[in-house]
Amino acid sequence: MNNFADRLIKQIKQKNSRIIVGLDPRLDLIPAQFRPAQARNDKSAAACITRFNKALIDLLHNNIVGVKPQSAFYEKYGPWGFKAFFDTMIYAKKKNLIVIADVKRGDVPSTAQAYAEAYLGKSSIIDAITVNPLLGRDSLDPFIKLAARNGQGLFVLVKTSNPGSKDFQDQVLSDGQRFYETVAQQVVEWGKPLTGRSGYSGLGAVVGATFPDELKKLRSLMPHNFFLIPGYGAQGGQTEDIKSAFNPDGLGALITAARSIIYPASFLNGQRDESPKIKNWPLKVEQAAGQMNREINTLIT
Amino acid sequence: MNNFADRLIKQIKQKNSRIIVGLDPRLDLIPAQFRPAQARNDKSAAACITRFNKALIDLLHNNIVGVKPQSAFYEKYGPWGFKAFFDTMIYAKKKNLIVIADVKRGDVPSTAQAYAEAYLGKSSIIDAITVNPLLGRDSLDPFIKLAARNGQGLFVLVKTSNPGSKDFQDQVLSDGQRFYETVAQQVVEWGKPLTGRSGYSGLGAVVGATFPDELKKLRSLMPHNFFLIPGYGAQGGQTEDIKSAFNPDGLGALITAARSIIYPASFLNGQRDESPKIKNWPLKVEQAAGQMNREINTLIT
């Protein structure tokens, strides 16, 4: 099945899940059992991160669509961290998860070509990456071409979940539209060659759960593009806020969560109070993911 | 001297140069003497890149302000490539060059914090990085704070050199301004706390040499911000096009060039025709940089 959107839909239906778990490792929050015994350096930090991620993947892979490691948290540990980023994705792919590398790259065409080869090359285990559209069509072309050839996907930043997204993305243009709307219209156009049998395009959009009105507007502007939706849970997005993200077919959106699942609050509280509760971490992770899945599936009629 | 703009100006005056050399390694263009003897893999590719970059730095360090490795060309070779990226920057710093990591990162605040720590951390050998402003003020704050604390700089994408920059950066807003102008105004504002004794801010802007009219307009909008100017040489920007980038004090702009210096055309032609001419590469590189320096310095009155 050589189309990203089609592959995604198969996983969603098989698992009855619309969750992508963000793998954003933070050494200070990772349970003690994964932490290095020796003094902390980039190599031991990276080994700790890989152990933690593999444990998360083992716990969750049957009940989630995929994982989204955020490269910043790996680049922080230099080449060793970058290795952990890829080791994590290789392991996730072995478990048949959809792998979305959250790299948000965007550059002039010749450089974008190098980025595209880095993340969407033929032997890549990555299903999709996030990209930044600020540099325009020619800066996304190398990604779109390689993704189309290899059946991979892209999620273009359209309306991000942070409060500061208003500064530039919400600018009103001379025709009365918002800046993010013109980006959205271009994504629809550029995504047509990546359309699968399902009718959905492999060119998706990042749209924050934190702006429900904009989300609703974008759903109607982009009916056949998948949304990758951050901001649910820890960033404040509620279940009702993301209702409009789904099409009547129950498809069209992937809800991401990192902190609220991989460092579940009930575990963190326990960890602070009583160290034996660290043993509860696997259970709390499974419970957090299960609860989120049920919450989201109540929106699917 | 704990301000990036001040440090930059000292180097510019000392060397009478306004050139930043882009280190964008392409294995197919690197002269044969640096290429690996064994079969090509990420490790040997990275070793070849590091050798090539060190040779370039040895040849050029007395006559250029600094270097700008573009991370895409290193990420392409995985963790080994990422190591070559840092090894290159460590070597450049040893030679007292200004080191600008061209990473164009930009993300939601918690992730931007991780990126800032990755590239602008206390022990960093990086003087400045490029950042993408699309996610707004809060997405740049972690970079600005760390840069201010450590005397580092940032170059915010304002008007990029590629033709596609017109798609979104040139959008006309409801007040009649272009999108890139509103970004420019914000950069001026946000850069004030990074102002050095020189009166210049450590918060700079990326502005392409390929759009002379926009460059002129931006110079007057942002008199105290340094411009990092790609697009000269291989991308088509001419000497006259960048005249307006400089303030009357001969400061305010850094002109970058990669392909036209590190793979000089006269060398490439020779390489294709006659292999012994590979020996000419060091001379051709020095000549290309020297010529560019003279061309640019004719603009300084």
Structure description:
Two copies of one chain form a homodimer. Chain A has about 300 residues and is an alpha/beta fold. Chain A contains twelve helices and eight strands. Chain A has helices at about 5-15, 40-60, 70-75, 80-95, 110-120, 135-150, 165-170, 180-190, 210-220, 260, 265-275, 280-295, and strands spanning about 20-25, 65-70, 100-105, 130, 155-160, 200-205, 225-230, 255. Chain A has an eight-stranded parallel beta barrel with strand order 1-2-3-4-5-6-7-8, surrounded by seven helices. In chain A, helix 9 links the parallel strand 6 and strand 7. The longest helix of chain A is centred in the N-terminal third of the chain and has 19 residues, at about 40-60. The model of chain A has no long low-confidence stretch (mean pLDDT about 95). At the A-B interface, helix 3, helix 4, helix 5, helix 6 and helix 7 of A face helix 3, helix 4, helix 5, helix 6 and helix 7 of B.
Short description:
The structure is a homodimer. With about 300 residues, chain A is α/β, with parallel strands linked by helices. Chain A has twelve helices and eight strands.
